[in-house]
Design brief:
six-stranded mixed sheet; 11 strands; alpha+beta
Length: 368
């Protein structure tokens, strides 16, 4: 982990100019910075409120979590830290330096006015990339990491529009508590300010009411909410709509057999994508089950998405239809040529040609 000079950050951000501010939340601000060598970085600075009460717990927790992780293509890359000591030596300010992702957030993509909307295959791709990011955290050894703040505003896009999970300020490591049968996971962090239940309303698991209720299934619930949001472009909580909760609204439609009514009305749903979309909505429904035991693990979610969602998208139906059209044309030519033959082997010859043509079509599919 690199230690950056504070003066580097001041110069890179033009003294933390408002023009360099690219994001803000309840715990801090994010600035875009350009280092002397031309490298673009993102700098996370603690909020003024937390600075005043000298509460560095969340920032220190994030540094601890990020510095322990190996690099992963689905998690925003952590570059290092910087510390600024004020005139009063008892006060210091910590900064996090992250990779800069230029294409904004998933929240902006889905909800900003006049934005280019993602098509259905892209939405499925975003969902699987987020799921793999969560899987990486949950499978971290020796203790799983629970993100606790899975939401569209924390999904960023790189220059190739690949989704990456960001903001691990609320993340916690887990430890196994074998004496508790119902809650076999509990937070390893001892700080009350960090360990108490936290998250974003609308995405937060309603079962997560005290520290002992922390579980990887809390992230699974949030991921289910996010899936509904990806498919509908409706906010997790929208007071202008009824019901205000996306979970209540979506699950009601699914129970009534109107799953496709959840889909973003601004985007046409082609018939060949209907099965994929229904599969994604089925996963989302199981994720937000009130009973934790009924929710799938993130490993199960990734496996299912790869098998029934991503694979069909890799080989879209138009390729299959094109192949069948070519097969039909070749069949006609085959029958025309075979009709010249007057022996009893005509049927056998056509069958041999059919098998050869099918093999050619399948080979064509593989090479694409």
């Amino acid at each position: 982990m690199k230690e950056f000079e504070y003066k580097e950050l001041v110069k890179a951000t033009e003294n933390f100019s408002q023009s360099k501010l690219i994001g803000k939340g309840s715990h801090g601000f994010v600035y875009k910075g350009i280092l002397e060598e031309g490298k673009i970085i993102a700098i996370k600075k603690q909020s003024l409120g937390l600075q005043k009460i000298q509460d560095n717990s969340k920032l220190k927790n994030e540094v601890s979590i990020l510095s322990s992780l190996s690099e992963n293509s689905f998690i925003v890359n952590f570059l290092g830290t910087s510390c600024h000591y004020h005139d009063d030596s008892s006060k210091n300010e910590t900064f996090l330096i992250m990779e800069y992702l230029p294409n904004g957030t998933l929240y902006q993509m889905l909800h900003a006015q006049n934005n280019i909307l993602p098509n259905w295959p892209k939405r499925a791709q975003i969902a699987i990339q987020v799921a793999k990011a969560i899987q990486f955290l949950h499978q971290t050894k020796p203790n799983s990491i629970v993100h606790r703040d899975i939401k569209s505003a924390n999904i960023l896009f790189d220059s190739n529009w690949n989704a990456k999970l960001a903001d691990l300020g609320l993340a916690l490591r887990m430890k196994i508590d074998r004496e508790n049968r119902h809650d076999d996971e509990s937070p390893i962090h001892s700080s009350n300010s960090v360990a108490r239940p936290a998250g974003t309303i609308g995405y937060l698991d309603p079962a997560y009411t005290k520290p002992s209720k922390l579980s990887t299934k809390n992230d699974v619930f949030s991921f289910g909410v996010l899936l509904f949001e990806i498919m509908s472009s409706r906010k997790a909580i929208d007071v202008s709509k009824s019901p205000v909760s996306i979970v209540d609204w979506a699950t009601k439609l699914i129970k009534e057999g109107q799953a496709l009514e959840i889909c973003d009305k601004r985007m046409h749903v082609p018939w060949y994508m209907e099965a994929t979309i229904k599969n994604m909505l089925s996963i989302a429904t199981r994720c937000v089950s009130p009973k934790k035991i009924m929710r799938p693990s993130i490993e199960e979610i990734v496996m299912e998405m790869e098998n029934v969602i991503i694979e069909p998208i890799k080989y879209p139906l138009w390729n299959i239809l094109r192949g069948l059209t070519l097969l039909k044309r070749k069949r006609k030519r085959c029958r025309k040529n075979c009709s010249i033959i007057t022996t009893n082997n005509v049927t056998k010859t056509c069958a041999q040609h059919e098998k050869k043509l099918i093999r050619e079509i399948l080979a064509d599919k593989v090479t694409e």
